[in-house]
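Example 249, ligand zinc ion.
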Amino acid sequence: MSIPPVPNSFRTLFSGLLDLVWPRSCYLCDQRIDTATRSGCVCSTCRGELTSDSAATCPRCAETVGPHTDTTAGCMNCRSRRFSFAGAVRLGAYQGKLRDAVLLAKHEGGEPLAEELGALLGTTRTAPLNAVAAEAVVPVPLHWQRRWARGYNQSEAVARGLAHVLGLPCRPRWLIRTRPTAQQRLVSAAARWENVRGAFRTGFGVRVRGVRILLVDDVLTTGATVDAAAAALMSAGAAQVSVAVIAHR
Ligand SMILES: [Zn+2]
Ligand SMILES: [Zn+2]
């Protein structure tokens, strides 16, 4: 027996009543969110700012580059590096409202915002993301101790929002962080590669052989973390790993 659909007029009435009882405001500026967009966490003004990055970026590492820079072999920052991932796409640079959003998304209650950021990444960077031709979306995992302390993994929520928009499966159990690592932002740039080397492996019984994977994190700085995670997937036989992040720092 199928359940009859809820009439739109009823939904509008219900949503309107909900607005009266519990007015919803934007996570980033406290402006009221109107009924039509109440499924989102941010107002249309903030959404516009979050998706306004028009800078040319390096296709290998997502760093901002000059408009006429030749990036066929990468940019000045990544040309000398060998990555285990094929390329990187970002929603924007780590500044202004995007930085605020990434920081808020890390905290308790930030999960819907992280998911929305993932969805915005998918709807804003459609062409480069489709070009990757990924078959599954995999978030960079937290070590279980940190996940337990924080309550959730923001990269997993970003990956969920992105996977939904791209119509791809999200596979948070495909990668495991094998040991707790010092937070990358507290480690010197040179030590970051050593800090995360060998810190990931694929989950027990997971088969990634021949699969094209889109690896998701919230922020990419040197690329050391996503590189270590991509290396684990590639050594398990993945066909290709590409990276998608909310912000490049
Ligand atoms: Zn706002
Ligand atoms: Zn680069």
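Summary: Strands lie at 88-93, 136-139, 175-177, 200-202, 212-220, 240-248.
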